[in-house]
Amino acid sequence: MLQVSLLGPLEITVGGRPVPVTARRAMRFLAALALAGGRPVAIPGLVESVWADRPPATAEAQLQTVVWRLRAALAEAGLPAGTIARRSAGYLLPREAFRTDLARFRTDVETARAELGRGRTDEAAGILRSALDRWRGPALLGIGGGATLAAAVERMEEERQRAHEQCVRLDVLRGRHHAVSVELRELVALHPLRESLVCTLALALYRSGRQTDALGVLRRTRDRLRDRLGMDPGRELVRVEQAILRQSLAFSAAENRLELRQIERALEG
Prior knowledge:
61% of the residues lie in helices and 7% in strands. It has 269 residues and is an alpha+beta fold.
């Protein structure tokens, strides 16, 4: 079985053994097929993925060379010639011929969402952590390519960020605010204007007995929004700030059913 790993630098393995695919064009071609999930990718789309908006006049002929070399590498690893299949619409990886870590990540997130729906918060949190552990770095790190691949990378990174945010949010609701406070600070440093993350950090600090620090985090975010974007904070930030000032926040997951439902909905994407 061909394994295409997209959650980090592109890696190709067969039966756990690496397949040496290092040419940038071949990597982009294979990534485009893997991201299509078993559907054919048309020749113009593959040319765009491989050469972006500056394809050579001989792009289609060069694409055939890329396919020939990839098929040879996969055959040497023990896979049949049809692993990269030609169709009138273009090329594809047959659905039954390959797996991706992206698909497993998405399955994990959906399983975690289902566990939350059953009220199994500890199990959901563990599955989310396992899903996040599948990432080895930024999606398709260093692969480059055209706008189609860039858009796919952006979508994957958004999925990762959403899962990570809901994971730490769930940990705070489970009473693990001390354990995730450093992790939350790192996430907020990366995404200082993401209000939902800032609110989760403020809740973690508040539940750790650091009300002043929690309010300071919210105030700095309010200032950043005003100075950088000319915007007022959203309703969630205002609600959390007011609840901290009133000291009216609940402390257990059982008392936060609405919050748990919000996490479940967020994991639906």
